Amino acid sequence: MSHSVTASPAQAENDHKGHHVTSPTLLLGVFGALMVLTVLTVWVTSIDFGNYNIFVALGVAVLKAGLVLMYFMHLRWDSPFNALIVVISLAFIMLFIAFSWIDTHQYAVNYDVPGAIAPAR
Amino acid sequence: MSTISPTHTATDPHGGHGDHAAHPAHLAHHFDDAEQQYTAGKLGMWVFLGTELLMFGGLFCAYSIYRSNFPEVFAYAHQFLDRKWGAINTIILIASSLSMAWGVRAAQLGQQFLLRVMLLLTILGGAGFMVIKTIEYTHKYHSHLFPGRVNKFSAAYAGEKVVLDSFMSEHEGSEGEPAAKGESTAGMKTEAAPAVPATPVPDAIKPHLTVVGDGPVYIDPNAGQGDAAKIVPNFSHPAGLTPAMLPASAAEAHVSAHSVMVHDNLTLTEQKRVSTFFSIYFLMTGLHGVHVLVGMGLIGWVFLKSLGGTFGPEYYTPVDLVGLYWHLVDLIWIFLFPLLYLIH
Lengths: 121, 344
Description:
Chain A is mainly α and about 120 residues long.
C-alpha cells in the first residue's frame, strides 16, 4: 500500500499502488458462487451421508465464508496481518470447542446421556 | 513548525505536520497521513471483528456440545424450523452483502449516487431479513416454542399454573381470539396428576394432543382454530403423534421428503432436552438479529453522511469498516443456516 490516492475510475482499476477496487465482474462472480453454494447446501441435505452430513454442510459453509472473507471483505488484497487476526480468532474458537468436547465426553458418564457407559461401582 | 504549540510538539514526534491548514478535514492529528489513519482504522476494525467471532464462538461451542451429546434431539427439534424461510434469508443476506461491497466500490470511485443507492439496498436487505425473522419468531411464539425450560415440551408448562397463566394471558391478549380462550382455559387448568384432561376434549382438537413424556397432557390452545396451519410445526403433524395416528395424506406427504422424527421416539432424557435446542436457537439467531439491527443502524448513519458527499476516493473509511461489519453478520448466518435449519 502506497500513499497514492486514486481519483478516477479508470485509474483506480489499473493502479496497483492504491487501494484495491473490486471489479463488478468479480463481485457478481462471488455473489453467483455464493448462491450456487447456498442451493448446494440445501440440496445436499437430502442425501444421506450417514454421520458425514455435518461435515459436508460445514465444508460448504467454510467455502462460502472463505469467499466472503477474501473478496467481499477484501482480505485477499489487505495487509496479511488482518487475515492473521481472523485465523487466530478461529484457531482459538477451535481450541475452545475442542477442549469443551474433551471435557463433556470425559464426564458424560456422570450424566444421563444415551449411550454413555455407567461407571463401575 | 512556527505556529504549533508546545502541546502539539509533544504529540507530533515527526514534526513535519505542524501546518494544520494542510490537513484534510478527516485526518486526525495523531496520524502521519490519511493512509496511516485508514490502515490503523482497518486494523482496529479487524480486531473488533475478531472479538465478535470469539463471542459467537461461545454459542457455537454450546451448540456443538449439546448436539454431540443429544444428536437425536437436534434432529427432532430442527423440524420445527422452516428451511424455506432460512434459505430465503440466506439469499437476502448474501444479496445485501453484494450491495454493500458494491457500495464500498462506489465510494472508492467517488460515485455518490450509486453509493447512496447501494447503501439503501443494503438496509432494505437487512429489513427484509428482520421481517422474515419476525415471522419465524411469531410462529414459534404461537407454537409455544420458547427458549428456556418452560415451553411446549416441558411438563412444567402444563403443570405450573402460575407461569402458564401469565404466558397464556399475554398470548391471548395479543391474539384477540376469544374462541381460543375457552378451550385453552379448559385444557390448561387441568391438574398435573391425571393422564387425561378432566374436561371433555372437543373432537376437533383431539389430533393436536401432545403427550409430554409421562407427564401431564398438553393441549394446544389454538388447535382447531382457523390459524391452525400457523401453529402446527413445519413437519406436517404435531409432536408426539406417531404417523399411524395421522391423516394418511399428511403423513405420506412428509415421509417422502425425509424420515420424520416424532417426540415419542426420543428417550425420556432426550425429551427433557428438546427445549435446549430452542434456547440455543433463540440465543444464536437472537444475537445475530441484534447484529443485523446494529448493522442497519450503522449503514443508515453512513447513508446520512453520504448525502453530504463526505465520501470519495480520498476518504471512505466509514463505508469500508461498516461494510466489514455487515459482511461479518452475513458470515455468521452462513454457518447458522445449515447448523440450525438443515440438520440431516
